[in-house]
């Protein structure tokens, strides 16, 4: 399904993009990675002299460069997982696509890079203007002092960039973190730090550094919560398990592969699973039950086959069947201890539910499409949604449901299978009235948890990028508290982020923050128009 490129929109000014390509761990003789790197114009002109670093999981680097035709090649790579970074001064780094490297394989990985314009400098100056003005308010500095502080930081930054021959986007300590990554780079460099201490006391500077650290901690917590919520949807975690899993993920926050909150808007379930399993190396052993572990391993193994928006191109039907049964078995554990008759009844219900699920999914898909179509058109008629946005969502949904011949493709079982009437009726039949009430309360609590996590994620994405102070964050939290889960199940985080951008009260924002919100919204609208023209 086509994605809203919110991460690209937010970080386009800085151009902080890493080209990341993964392959799976396996064996001995190796294969080849090659490709072409071109610009983002319609002509796709080749780019010469791009540095291509292919980094193995053990940290070993294989480096090459593109030739005059924009081509690169690295042979004899041992089969395994790699991180590919591409870089050329004056160009934005780009994010690649997953690739599976196998022994004797020849893997073609084309990439594109856009030239950096003046946006980076404009973004940097606006960010620093916002930071120095907020420092002025925070520490009661006079306007002339604030202006002098701003100029001092800009001059120091420009001097340092000339000395090290790097772009501002490369100066950030952690490019994926955007604003706070750049500020960390400033605070860490002696010359830039000295520019701050000309007009701030050490105590004031440390206070602001601590404020930025708080933003980062919120960002990391939002990531851990979002991934935990995804796992909860698939594994049906208990409240205690959610806390343990969230802390387990947070414990990996210093790992260089740990994502930023804004990057979660471009991450799907399978990518998150791969991140946990292969990059952060998180193990759920000792936390999840045997049934939950079956689901976890089934999803991870599915990832080895490769998916696109939940579509599994080659996985056997029997594997999907087993995974679906495991999901229902894990959900059944929420019911607590059951007697032999109840357990037997639910086992039969699970098998019947899975059979009906696979028999009726084609009809269900079309019915669901018609319901969503009617709902979206109602929003258009009420003036609550633009027609092109509704058409875009429906086109994406139709594309996900089937291929060009109209054949429904194999898909991972959705978490909403637990709502299947056959399964739910069996639960109601085997539980007492009080026990069924408790079960419904658990499901209600889970739904509220997922909604709150989603709201917190989008607030944190905006707050981290725009360096919200406490008052601004509080106001945006109030706005987000009115947001509901979008009608479509796909891309819900990005869609809710878009809702938040639309509804954010700009009166409390600085000029730079207002400009950034406008820029992000404009980028989304531009994407809508481009996609409509292509259809």
Q: What are the low-pLDDT stretches, counting only 5+ consecutive residues below 50? A: 1-6, 11-27, 305-315, 403-410
Give the N-to-C terminal Cα separation: 14 Å
What percent of the residues sit in helical stretches (DSSP H or I)?
55-70%
* Number of alpha- plus pi-helical segments: 18
Shape: globular
Order of helices and strands: HEEEEEEEHHHHHHHHHHHHHHHHH
Report Rg: 25 Å
Instruction: Characterize the main sheet.
Output: 4 strands, mixed
What proportion of the residues form beta strands (DSSP E)? 5-15%
**Number of separate strands:** 7
Give the structural class. alpha/beta
Mean pLDDT: 81
Helix/strand layout:
Elements: H1 6-11, E1 31-39, E2 51-56, E3 61-65, E4 71-77, E5 82-87, E6 106-108, E7 111-113, H2 119-139, H3 143-164, H4 168-171, H5 179-188, H6 190-197, H7 202-235, H8 239-250, H9 269-279, H10 290-305, H11 317-332, H12 340-381, H13 387-401, H14 421-430, H15 433-466, H16 470-480, H17 492-503, H18 511-534
Parallel strand pairs: 1-6, 1-7
Antiparallel strand pairs: 1-4, 2-3, 2-5
Architecture overview:
- The protein is an alpha/beta fold and 535 residues long.
- Among the domains are: 6-113, Immunoglobulin-like, CATH 2.60.40.10; 119-200, no CATH class; 289-430, no CATH class.
- It is built from 18 helices and seven strands.
- Strands 1, 4, 6 and 7 form a four-stranded mixed β-sheet that branches. It has a three-stranded antiparallel β-sheet with strand order 3-2-5, with no helix packed on it.
- A hairpin with a 4-residue loop joins strand 2 (51-56) and strand 3.
- Helix 7 crosses helix 8 (239-250), helix 13 (387-401) packs across helix 18 and helix 15 crosses helix 16 (470-480).
């Amino acid at each position: 399904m086509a994605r809203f490129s919110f991460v690209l929109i937010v970080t386009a000014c800085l151009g902080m993009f890493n080209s990341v390509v993964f392959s799976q761990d396996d064996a001995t003789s190796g294969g080849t990675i090659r490709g072409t790197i071109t610009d983002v114009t319609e002509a796709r002109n080749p780019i010469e002299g791009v540095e291509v670093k292919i980094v193995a999981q053990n940290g070993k680097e294989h480096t090459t460069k593109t030739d005059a035709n924009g081509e690169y090649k690295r042979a004899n790579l041992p089969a395994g997982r790699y991180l590919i970074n591409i870089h050329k001064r004056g160009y934005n780094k780009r994010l690649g696509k997953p690739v599976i490297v196998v022994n004797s394989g020849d893997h073609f990985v084309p990439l594109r890079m856009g030239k950096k314009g003046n946006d980076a400098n404009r973004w940097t100056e606006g960010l620093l203007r916002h930071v120095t003005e907020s420092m002025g308010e925070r520490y009661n500095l006079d306007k002339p002092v604030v202006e002098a502080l701003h100029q001092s930081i800009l001059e120091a930054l420009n001097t340092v960039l000339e000395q090290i021959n790097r772009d501002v986007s490369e100066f950030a300590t952690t490019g994926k973190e955007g604003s706070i990554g750049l500020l960390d780079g400033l605070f860490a460099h002696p010359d830039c730090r000295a520019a701050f201490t000309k007009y701030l006391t050490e105590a004031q500077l440390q206070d602001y550094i601590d404020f930025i650290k708080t933003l980062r901690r919120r960002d990391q917590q939002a990531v851990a919560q979002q991934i935990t919520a995804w796992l909860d949807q698939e594994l049906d975690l208990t409240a205690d398990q959610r806390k343990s899993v969230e802390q387990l993920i947070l414990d990996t926050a210093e790992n260089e592969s740990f994502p930023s909150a804004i990057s979660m808007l471009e991450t799907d379930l399978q990518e998150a699973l791969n991140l946990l399993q292969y990059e952060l190396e998180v193990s759920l052993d000792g936390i999840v039950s045997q049934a939950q572990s079956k689901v976890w391993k089934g999803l991870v193994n599915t990832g080895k086959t490769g998916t696109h928006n939940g579509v599994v191109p080659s996985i056997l039907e029997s594997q999907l069947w087993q995974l679906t049964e495991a999901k229902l078995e894990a959900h059944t554990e929420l019911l607590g201890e059951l007697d032999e008759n109840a357990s037997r009844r639910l086992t039969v219900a699970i098998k019947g539910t899975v059979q009906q699920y696979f028999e009726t999914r084609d009809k269900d898909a079309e019915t669901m499409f018609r319901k969503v179509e009617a709902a979206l058109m109602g929003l258009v008629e009420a003036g609550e949604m633009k027609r092109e946005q509704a058409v875009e969502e429906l086109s994406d949904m139709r594309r996900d449901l089937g291929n060009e011949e109209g054949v429904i493709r194999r898909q991972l079982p959705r978490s909403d299978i637990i709502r299947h009437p056959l399964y739910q009726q069996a639960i109601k039949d085997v539980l007492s009235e009080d026990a069924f009430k408790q079960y419904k309360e658990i499901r209600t609590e889970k739904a509220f948890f997922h909604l709150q996590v989603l709201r917190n994620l989008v607030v944190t994405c905006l707050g981290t990028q725009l360096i919200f102070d406490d008052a601004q964050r509080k106001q945006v939290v109030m706005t987000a508290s009115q947001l509901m889960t979008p009608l479509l199940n796909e891309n819900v985080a990005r869609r809710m982020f878009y809702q938040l951008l639309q509804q954010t009260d700009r009166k409390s924002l600085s000029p730079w923050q207002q400009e950034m919100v406008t820029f992000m919204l404009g980028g989304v609208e531009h994407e809508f128009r481009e996609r409509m023209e292509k259809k």
